[in-house]
Amino acid sequence: MADHSKNHADHPGRMGKAAYLEQLLPLQVELSCVERRLEQTGQRLLVIMEGRDTAGKGGSIAAISERLNPRRCHVVALSAPSEREQGQWYFQRYVPHLPAAGEIALFDRSWYNRAGVESVMGFCTPAQTAAFLDQAPRFEQLLTEDGLLIFKYWLCVDQAEQEQRFADRRADPLKRWKLSPIDLKAREHYEDYGRARDRMLKGTHTAWAPWTLVDFNDQRVGRLTLIRHLLDHLPASLRRAPPAAEAEGPLPPLGTAPQVERFRGPLKPIPPGV
Amino acid sequence: MADHSKNHADHPGRMGKAAYLEQLLPLQVELSCVERRLEQTGQRLLVIMEGRDTAGKGGSIAAISERLNPRRCHVVALSAPSEREQGQWYFQRYVPHLPAAGEIALFDRSWYNRAGVESVMGFCTPAQTAAFLDQAPRFEQLLTEDGLLIFKYWLCVDQAEQEQRFADRRADPLKRWKLSPIDLKAREHYEDYGRARDRMLKGTHTAWAPWTLVDFNDQRVGRLTLIRHLLDHLPASLRRAPPAAEAEGPLPPLGTAPQVERFRGPLKPIPPGV
Amino acid sequence: MADHSKNHADHPGRMGKAAYLEQLLPLQVELSCVERRLEQTGQRLLVIMEGRDTAGKGGSIAAISERLNPRRCHVVALSAPSEREQGQWYFQRYVPHLPAAGEIALFDRSWYNRAGVESVMGFCTPAQTAAFLDQAPRFEQLLTEDGLLIFKYWLCVDQAEQEQRFADRRADPLKRWKLSPIDLKAREHYEDYGRARDRMLKGTHTAWAPWTLVDFNDQRVGRLTLIRHLLDHLPASLRRAPPAAEAEGPLPPLGTAPQVERFRGPLKPIPPGV
Amino acid sequence: MADHSKNHADHPGRMGKAAYLEQLLPLQVELSCVERRLEQTGQRLLVIMEGRDTAGKGGSIAAISERLNPRRCHVVALSAPSEREQGQWYFQRYVPHLPAAGEIALFDRSWYNRAGVESVMGFCTPAQTAAFLDQAPRFEQLLTEDGLLIFKYWLCVDQAEQEQRFADRRADPLKRWKLSPIDLKAREHYEDYGRARDRMLKGTHTAWAPWTLVDFNDQRVGRLTLIRHLLDHLPASLRRAPPAAEAEGPLPPLGTAPQVERFRGPLKPIPPGV
Fold this sequence. Notes:
homotetramer; Rossmann fold; 5 strands
């Protein structure tokens, strides 16, 4: 599983890797069943991940999608809008990425940018944020009435932990890309982000598309909590195991001796170990 | 890292997990540097993964993309074409997914479907396959002349190993989705696939977009070999480390005491351990 | 102007072509001013044309778009949904075609298909139509609150006139494509369409996106009425003439003698009159 | 028909409107037959219109598309590329608009921008233009080999006539949008455009996608010449009339008395003449 949290080991009281993987695996089995059930029922699932920088959005998405079919489960991480997109209805550029029948979409950030980073960093006007907070629940209501299942997660991280992760990223060439100048500037706005988040939760926590807050100060614990919550709150029809018969028994015998990949042309595989 | 190959452990002579992860990590660091260099130079990278069912395409893509920026590195796994798409130029539906400046696209299967599964299973005519084999190198030449970097990998797996993996999938609820009826029917066509592959390699192995064959009978070794090959064959400009200065030194001090995520509304995080 | 209504001349009491063009021209001048005002203000305009077969949707769109900038004014006439689109939120495939800042979109049929042809011909369930009628006003409210201007026109035609036009089409090779088997079957459902339309008007005629019914038994009169209505109901800011200064005065002199298109290669223009 | 060329009347020797329409109509009938034949055979047709400003591209497209099915015949007039598109393969943003089976696409300007306006006005480097001229024929060859029919028209207009049209546009509120600052600057580059055009014709006039030059100093004559040329050079299979049987004979009788549009709700049509 995606798990690069070497620093976790340094923190006494953090979940160890072995325990994490042991608990993760059966959850991934369940997710895989859910995926097949979705395919059978034609239902659609949208999971939105939001949270401060470093909270753990990407890692959670990886933990969910890792063993799912990439043709059925799409990760959506949109770049900044083009100039033309900026002149469109705010939700317009997200709509084409909503899942079709039998599909899952995992949003790494979402339309809630307008209530968070865009608002705090001044990329939109207060009136635009207010309009967004008014529209988002109604937009989501249209989707959920139509049968779309929406789960919205806010991944919580305290500033001391966030500072530690920023420092780790700065020191780690593998993670340095995650540190943009805007991220660094955001450090000075921890409280502002908190206020923006409270306003967002207040305005957009609805019966049809509720927010769930998950403590991600320990990322492994956070991921397990999040996935368990997701699985527990899916409709019963999706949690029921698919009929066992579908793949029962061993494969029919091959009938011939198994072959090796033989290449008749000049191209040969790179020998292992080179 | 994505590594669910529990069966590997059962095979004497297969690479162990610890050794694998130890070797993978520095390669991922290099990939991350490449990604930042791409962003600086505006170059574009396309990696195509092809191979028989179970060969290890998805796992290799996960190993590459795992620590890259999802806004810069896109996994492309297209579903079957719609009826309208079937009436278009064969390459048309792939073109919108080619990477833009500074981006990486990882194709899980590609236009080479026409030379492989579509040809073997009779989803297209022999004339269509012949036309494809004639067009593909010229199409790719247009792209590479324009500066796109194309890497095409064929992941090799012997039938005995493939049979073992099919059997594992059948037994493993996490992997059962990977077993479609077409896959099972493909078992009877191992040799036909080999012939189709040889013809494809013969027709589309070019100086500007060469194929590389990698032995994936041991998936861990295969992934490491593939990533090493990719890194070794990138242009020198992309392998040079980005200027160290970019993130040197510790973060500037925060200035205030670090805060905790405090929620003023009624919504509270799920307590860890629930 | 698009005006192929030769049969009109046969009907006493129908508007003559000369009178039509004389009245149309100043309306098109105004539309052109509106387009430039939209560009200046960044506003967006959506015009939806609905009505029975033969009512005159295409001709009205042509009359509006004819002298507008094709890079700013888009005609949207979507084909039947693909299988994947059928498994999406009903409005999803229309959303990418909503106009961006400064643009006009002219919809030749629209999401209202679900209340009309799909409902009458049994392409959707009564529950789906009911859900649509509930969603459409709320969806449109999101758009209009965001500043999108929506005009919805129902073009009225009596059955005797429609029958005459069907007969004309059948006899006219230029128009025969407009006669699909579904159209012919629709003849038997004139009343059903009327009932479906009444229900649609009842459910979706709102303060923010009202329907306007225009008599199109005389197509020329209908087009003039529709365009006049559109111009009269745009916000005042869009009707004000753009500053005259923008293109005042003659062009600066050319400075050299005007040249002729001279072709230095072997290719020469087709001589006129050949 | 789209015909706003009032100034034509002022020029002795120009074709009159009545003669124009009389000749246009049978050509449009043929185009309509071609469209139905395309639908039956699944062939695809791409028509590219290029030429100096004011040459008559938009009017020619209108004359062709006017009576065709908007769901089958698409006008493609792309705006300037976004920043992301600028970092893609030059042809990438055009490819999604290539016609599918049974469709016609009419391009109002095209990838040839790179050989024309972009080259003359310095929006690309000489190396980029050279690369384009090298790629375009090979790109088009891939398309035509795949069965796409490509027609490329250059609409010729002498500078004196162009100057007259610029002056007309400046004076005409209906056409002023057609006069951008770049257009005006282009006046000083008539010769440069000619040189760029000669180079483009030299490099991209091929057996599989030849250029045809049409004299558009008299727009009406130009349109008729162009459409005639198009019809005369389509494959024989598309020019054959569709089977007459398809819509023979009168419509079956209606069976009931024809009804009038009766509205049961409060909404009533705008009375004609208001």
